[in-house]
Amino acid sequence: MEDVATEYYRELLRRNLLQSDPLSYRNGGFTMHDLLRALAQFIAQGEYFSGEVATLARTSLASQEMKLRHLSISGDFLEISPEIVKEHTSVRTLIILGIPTNTLPEDLFQKLKCLRLLDLSKTNLMVVPESASSLVHLRYLDFSGSMISRLPETIGNLSNLQYLILQACEQLSELPKSIANLYKLRSIDLAGTRVIGIPAGIRQLIYLNRVINFVTNDQRIDGARKCYSSLEDLKPLINLRTITIVNLERAARAQGSILKDKIHIYHLKLSCSSEGWPYQQEDIARIQDVFEERLFPPSSVENFTIEGYFGMEFPTWMKNRDLFLNLTRLDILKCRNCSQLPLLGQLPLLDHLEIHGAWSIKHIGPEFMGSAGREAAFPKLKSLILEDMPEWEEWTWEAKDDARVMPVLESLWIERCPRLKSLPQGLVHHATNLSYIWIEESHSLTVIEGFKSVQKAYLARNNGFERLTDFPSVQVLEIEDCPALLHHVGVLPSLQMLIWRDSSMRFLPEWMLPHPVDPIFPNLQRMSITVGDVLTLKRCLINGPDSAKIQHIPNVYMEVMDRPDFISFTKEPFRFLYKSS
């Protein structure tokens, strides 16, 4: 079913019937063009309604023959009349948006026998009406982001339910035992809940292919008469494609991998919480055995996240190149005890790598690249993120012509690495496709130079950063609280926009003065500067001591943090506006 749906989805993209949504593109969001949506609404009129419940009430009164199949309403329909919904007995899809009340009428769903999809997400709903258990044809049930604290035991009556979405139900801590009766369930999402365990019997749900936040609980709590599913209960679920396993610090030692034979898994996340940090040596030894023996992944994995692992060394299977031939994304998060990264450079399809919270890493060198001979290391890598590594001091990487490394890297993000002294020459030499660089809170870095392909750079809160040179292609430069950078910035011939925020700036740097022969910013079109003092702003007024540093720039905007004072300057036609508080 999912394969067919994916093909339909791709076909919609190929035909441009779906377009990327700028507001949610990073999360894979897409939208439909307004004209196409209007056409679909026109074709479906009489069967489809989306809007305020008051409008629906008027429409229903005006057209007694309306036979709605799909209904999406917003507003407080309880204040008008819940009968407005009840009378549409043929409805297949019901989406209720933003209801302010926390309860629904108990009999709301009794007559909606044809309902296939029910979406009550992002509402204040606290109690699920018992009548919801009578929706025997229901396939999709979404409570995500609601205030519900429990599900009724009768939810097990939804014999055709395939998708149960409980994401971000922050008050939910327990699932009913009858969950095990949902034999056709294909997807369950518990991310962002407080659920402490999955009821016993999940091994019976053999059609499950997506499980988000399977809560590890290998200990059975007999005293409380509660019995939870353990990792062993995942073994029969051979159709899994996406699985997130959390609270692995509770896992017990056992023989045999629970994942290795699941050849359809493409998205895998293994997570330990930090509740017991710092862990005892006994726990460290146990978690190393659990990951090594029980969590050996299949070679089908394309997207892999390991989070909160507190072993002293990464599992040996993470060094197995042949195991990850299909891997495109790897996130290594909060693995605080590991002092050496696994060999990752030879993963042929890896295009995104994030290393976050590697507190024990002090040195990154050839063992990370793994390049042998003329074979390229990280041949497909486009995005590299290195974040929250407080002990990291050195990144060694020689600039050798015979070893191609990161040839297609586009984006480099380094944040909260305060001891890193320099960026390697190998990065400058090999990453010739790099177009975006972000460096933040890396106070030991003093110089960044030689990145000839970078077009956009963001530099923030780097206290030791003194010099920026040899960036011939940079078009957008954003600098925030880098006080030492006032001393030297080299010629930036392609720069078109400069954004500078510095609360400690008391005057504009001397290198901003126009040079008649060799200007530092020959193509600069816009400059935005935010300072922390009104006196700094006033230095740039006409005939002020810093006025000559901005008057050669076509468009300038200066402001003071947390104050209404600003300067707006346009060179041609000349316009100078100053506002003071």
UniProtKB/TrEMBL annotation:
Keywords for this protein? Repeat
- Pfam families reported in the protein's UniProt record: LRR_14 (PF23598)
Domain Disease resistance R13L4/SHOC-2-like LRR, which positions?
91-415
Please name the InterPro entries in this protein's record.
LRR_dom_sf, LRR_R13L4/SHOC2-like
Which Gene3D superfamilies does the UniProt record give?
A: Ribonuclease Inhibitor
Keyword Repeat listed: yes
Claim: Repeat is one of the keywords in the record? yes
Coiled coil stretches, renumbered: none
The UniProt entry, under PANTHER family, shows:
LEUCINE-RICH REPEAT-CONTAINING PROTEIN 57, NB-ARC DOMAIN-CONTAINING PROTEIN
* Name this protein carries in UniProt: Disease resistance R13L4/SHOC-2-like LRR domain-containing protein
